[in-house]
Structure formats: C-alpha cells, structure tokens
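Priority: low. Protein: Beta-glucuronidase. Input follows.
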Amino acid sequence: MLRPQSTPTRDLVSLDGVWKFALVKDSLEKEAPWTRPLSGCLEAPVPASYNDVFLSPDIHNHVGWVCYQRRVVVPRGWSQERYFVRIEAATHKGRVYINDTFVTEHVGGYTPFDAEVTELVQPGGEFRLTIAVNNELTNTTIPPGIIEVLASGQKKQQYFHDFYNYAGLARSVWLYSVPARHVEDVTVLTDVQATTGIVRYDIKTTELGAGETVHVTVQDEADVAVGKAAGSHGEIHIDGATLWQPGAAYLYRLCAQVRGADGTLLDTYSVAIGIRTVQVRGTQFLINGKPFFFTGFGKHEDSAIRGKGHDPAYMVHDFQLMDWIGANSFRTSHYPYAEEVMDFADRHGIVVIDETPAVGLNLAVNSGFFEGVGKDASTWSPEFINDDTRAAHADSIRELVARDKNHACIVLWSIANEPATDEPGARAYFEPLVALTRSLDPSRPVAYINVMFANYKNDLVADLFDVVCLNRYYGWYVHTGDLVKAEAQFEEELRGWDRTYGKPIIMTEYGADTLAGLRSFYDAPWSEDFQVSYYNMCHRVHDRVPALVGEQVWNFADFQTSAAHVFRVDGNKKGIFTRDRKPKAIAAVLKARWSQKLQDMGYPGMK
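Result:
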C-alpha cells in the first residue's frame, strides 16, 4: 500500500480541517448516520484525537462509535483515473461511507487504509464523506481490552496499557487519484560491497497492456541519475555510494515509471531510500559494519488537547530536543507513529525501533500494577489472548512492515511490548509471528520488549529473537528508593542475560516518575534529585556490561494515562521533559552523558 503523493500522473487533495462530528449513542447500523447530514453543532479537528477537544465528559469517556463527516468536491480535471480516500489512522476501527454507500472497513488504529471510490464519484462532482471510528478494545484486538456494560447500559472500557486510549482521526485524510495502470507497491533492499551500494528493487503494478514496461531510475541528492534499470525486479549498483548513517543521513530517490509501448508516461512514483546495512554479530549491533550504541527514548504521540493527533510543530520541536540532548534513536512505543515522523527520521539520520501496537498481552502486569483482571489467570488462553488475537497481531505486523519497509531509519522491528513470555503458551503464540516477520523482511533483526516478570531464567521465547530488549525499573517499582539494592540486582540480571543468550542488550525502558519542581536533600522518590540519582545508578551498571548496546530512557516526555489508577496523577510523570516539553534536571545529566557517548563513537557533528 503506497502512501499517496502528488506526481505528474497522480493528484492529491488534503481533507484535513474541521469536520462535523457526532457520537453514536445506540448502534451504528440502527442510527445509520451516514445516510444524512450529521445533526447537531459539534465540529472536530482532523487530525486530532477527539477526547480532550471538547469539555463534555460524555465525549471524553465515550466507548463505541463516533462519526466524522464533510462534503468533498472531486477536482473537475480528474478523468480516466481511479479515485481513493486514504485514512492514515482511525483508532481503533474505521468505516468509510460515500453518500449512502458503505465502502470499506479497517481494523487497527495506527496503520493506514484506502477506500476506492471510483465508481461512486465523478470529476467536478460533490459527495458526502462519512468516516465512522470505533475505540473499543476486546481480547481479540491489538491492543487488547475488556468492555464492561454497566447496569445503566453505559459501556466502560478497561485496557491493559499505561497510556490513554485516545481515539478518532489522529492523522491526515486524503482524496487522491492514480492512473488506470499504475505502480501499486515498491520494495527496496540495500546492501554494500566495498564502496559499491546495491539497490535491489521489486515493483508491483496493476496488470499492464502489451508493450507497457517498468523503468527504474535512482537519483542522488543533486538529482543526478546514478543508476537505471528496466523491469519490475532488478538490482542497481552505485559506485562510490554515499551511505545513510546515523547522524549523517543521505537519501537517494528511486523513481519507478510505467511507460506505454510508444514511451508515453503512464505513471510515476518515487521513494526516498538510504543505502545502509544492519547486522547483529555476537553482542554487537552493527550499522554499516560499525558498532552502534543507541541513545534516546521510548516516546509517545501525546500532547495536550490534540492527544495523539499528529502535529508537525510538535514533531520538529521534539526532534530538536532529541538533537540537543544527544539522542540518536527512539522507539515507537507502543504503536507505529505517523509516516511523517518516519520521513523526518530518514532525512535527519535518527535511528528507529519500529513497534507494533501489541501492548498489554500480559495479565500479570495488569493485575500487579493496575489491580485489574488477571490475578491467577492465564494470558495465553481461549478466554484472553487466543488464536483470534494472534491473527490480529499477525495483521498488525503485516501492515507495519508493508508501510515502513523502505525507511532507512528503521533498524529493528519490535513485534510486542511486555508480553507474558514467562507463561506457558508464549512460545506457541510467538514462534509463528517471528517467522512471519522474518519472511516479510529478511533485512532487519527482530525483537520483542521484555518485562521484569520474565527474566533470563524463566523467559520462554528470547532465543527466537535477535536482540534482548529490556524494560527494567530497579529502584522504582523494585526496591523503591533503595538504589544500593537496586544497583546490585540490576547488574546481576544484565549479566545473567549476557551469559545465557550472548546477544546485544538494549535497555528500552528504565525510569522513575518525577514531579517537575519537586526538590529533596534526601533524594526522595518523585523528586528531581532522586531521578538524577536513579539514572546515575543505572548508568553505572550499563557501563559495566559490555553486551549492553543501547539505553532508551522511559520516557521522552510526561504523557496522559487513564484516570482509573490512583498512582497516576494527570498522567505518567517519567518524562525527561514535561508534557509541554520543559526540561527536568535530569535532561542536563543525560545531555552530558550522551554527548560524550556520541563523541566516543565518532558520531557526525560531535567534536
């Protein structure tokens, strides 16, 4: 599924803006709101989550369907084309209606989908576009949840992840056209031999007519053609190629064209590509054959009012903060981020661990932290995470790889966050998912993010993966405030993982909740002083374990969580920055450490 773009053969119209908006209070089928203009005066911005935009508790706490609606005009110059509506994200289920006609449905809240509307609209004509969005989570969705129906008939959602279940159209919506015969997909794999860059490509098209052919050109950043080939599959060699490197991005442009028998251009589509290699060797993580050390964050798409709504101003500012502090990487915890974020990371040489929305597959975490469903229950069971859940999980992996496979910035797939990998049934669940991921993309290593209940002695799946990724909170959730005990136990566990598996270890989460402005002479938990001492302790351990190749702190910025848990006051406060991006005291400490790390690595731009 190619992201729409404007080219000499394709047109693109943004449908972002303010849409009519309404809750569906009964059933979607019974109310059938798409059959008429939405009543009422509510309007909602797109892109944005709707939960915090309005002041109504009924909207904020709504569980079920909502509808967005607007009028759309098809440009009158469009003809002999195929037309699509593209929804970048509808959290967690979306349905598209053109006038009174249902067109398509998509399940999964963080990946895009298209609705072909060719037969339903006309150039120069106007149509009513209605998008219904459902935020319900069940045991067979990714991420999972449980819905309780109260005696009043109101639905109450329980979910098993520690971030707010923002919903709506959080990313852009487009109307676009493509020619009748066009490029449908582009897959690029790169390699390096000595100083020669190798670009292997696979172009999928609609069925072509007699004499119609595919042509591929690779251009450098000066728009000079450095390689050409013909055919849907092939390999282009670029002598003296400039590699994409962390901190020093260089992007070529691969242009795929469909031409008629007489040479007429029928379609053209281009993809930005970075030539680089990724490899795991022993306990090293190698990019372009050189050891790489991850510095950075787990992040969230989260900001006040807009929730998970993509905002380019926040995006650019967040990357500025990462550059300032010396972060060379981040993880898309716990779902794929907007495609614009991946593009920006490509252009600026930021390394990304790309993660599916498979978070909350662990009843022990739910019962232990959130005092919810799960005590003495089995995670991998017909009643909770079952074969249907795994099928949804497989779909989320397919859609993640299909969307993001060509991004040079992505060096590692994470297929789940904190699953119950110490429970019987975990291996049967994950083994086929790992095989699926490798079959979809053999060029990148695969990981999952391990939670503290599954240690190196009792984990059942770690051998299936390429990298050990750990979330650990010694000194916060374990031995709270006792950093002496925490340091000893933390080091013992890291060394245990190294002895047992001999793989690279990345700390993908470690942190302590901190109330900005709270100071303490005694390093009291929740104070900025304790947060500094906590990280200093963790880093002493990191420096004593050579197999550790990365530290991504939790979290980049404070973020919103469910109000149902008393230990979360207006959100998770583990951010290095506040929710409005003000630095806590720890930011300067990390800046000094990571700047030295990057300098020691010979990172571009560091002196």
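The chain has a mean pLDDT of 94. The radius of gyration is 25 Å.
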